[in-house]
Write the structure tokens for this entry.
Amino acid sequence: MVGALTQALARAGHPVQVVTPLYRGIRQRFPAIRSTGWRFEVRIGPELVPGRFHRLDPEPNLTLWFVDQPGFFDRPGLYNERLHDYPDNAARFSFFSQAATLLDRHLPNPPGIVHAHDWQSALVPMRIQYERVATGWTSAPKTLLTVHNLAYQGSFPICDWDSTGLPVQWLHLESALHHGQVNFLKGGIALADALSTVSPTYAREICTPEFGCGLDGLLRRREYELTGILNGVDYEEWNTVGNPALVASYDADHLGGKRANKAALQEELGLPVDGSIPLFADVTRLADQKGVDLLHDAVLDLLGSGERFQLALLGSGDPRLEAAIDRLARTFPNAVAARIGFDAALAHRIEAGADFFVMPSRFEPCGLNQLYSLRYGTIPIVRATGGLADSVIDPRENPDRPTGIKFHEPTAPALVNAMRKGIGLFQHPEVLDAFRRRGMRTDVSWTRQATEYLDLYDEVYHGV
């Protein structure tokens, strides 16, 4: 999201600077990265930890700054390995946040807005607010914090507060103190000048106890400073014309290539090649949040009742769900194909080849696959939550311009009913193709979404 948004802003003529850790592999992927010679130290507990800034200018108006500290960031994973968080994550991202604030303060052309994302950079708004007050940084930028998924908060033992470089007086219930722990995300939510999240519906949901993950009270107090903006799609990457991952190009006016991609996908996955059978799909993290267990049970129900369809699934995650999906595929090899893991090219082929894309999420801040599906003429079947509710139009909402199918209860029977609607829709090719064309002509690009962020930046900068 950050990469696509910043590119869209830069291409619209707005100067953008991105700050990110120099994770393992970045330098090899982008050999044009150069050292600036800028070395610095920040305090992490009792120690001064050194770091360096590197820089890349990939296109006009866009500068990437990389925070180099090998001990913290030259690791196999970003935040964890084998599903276990790094034990020094508080120190790692305290270092990053202090480095980013240092950069903000000393750039020749300092920013007017600093846009932080999630708990990993949520200390930046806190740090900037502290330096406004404690050091008289009167020209400090305004801050916006975007919450991509409230379930991940960066919660650490009280002793990790020392790593932030902030005085103990700044740790209290109106900042980062939460149930006896240091909560990076809570601190950012409390002290950023403005807040956003990745869909209008999710912005409303996280202000409720059901979706607020323990922070709903704080979010309700800041509800009028919280904006929901849907994510977009990078049309250069997610494109049905000239895409090397696909066997045939197609567009809204020429859908023949989509049928060719379906046949090729069925063959690749070992499913019977049959254009007359509806092909459902999911590309997902195998987790309870994503409702994979609901999909598993719904498929069993539908196959048990004699429904004729196929399912293609790509994903990895919870070993228990991996085993269940693998067992389902082995039990019904002519109806279910599963690939455990991730394959970016296969994800494109699944989006292009499927008739329906199923997203039974229990909660979904924004979701991207339903946007990819619209772009690829694959009809999304989604639970009406978060960004799924905002980006898909059900026939009951607007019979003149539906783009997908929604269901409301996070249960297997509700999903079964929605999938049966898809099977029924498949029996009417003209109506089916009208859904496809409508989705493909829906503008879900970052070019459009970037204008909403520009409006929000203007409001934050001027204190509206």
User: Anything to note?
Assistant: Residues 2-232+448-461 form a domain with the Rossmann fold fold (CATH 3.40.50.2000).
